[in-house]
Amino acid sequence: xxxxxxxxxxxxxxxxxxxxxxxxxxxxxxxxxxxxxxxxxxxxxxxxxxxxxxxxxxxxxxxxxxxxxxxxxxxxxxxxxxxxxxxxxxxxxxxxxxxxxxxxxxxxxxxxxxxxxxxxx
Length: 121
Prior knowledge:
single chain, 5 helices
């Protein structure tokens, strides 16, 4: 699949959305969120997966900034709104906040915890 690069305006207008199939539980007095996402195997690997008793889900522990970023994603706020809120809360510039959030969003996307909704140009 070809990677598509978005213009800055599209990036800022995009809306991060949590994966609804993620199971989340609180630990350590609510300071840690353990999220589990189901693994997807190709059609030919389904029976092999059962036979070899491979994992059916992957778990991640979110705390600190990762937890704050994940909890701020509500499916309605644009990336720009999240950047502005994060910058104000942590006394960062817009660009520092954008760089930090962009990296966290990439990590959360690669782990299957969120998707990014982009409106067509």
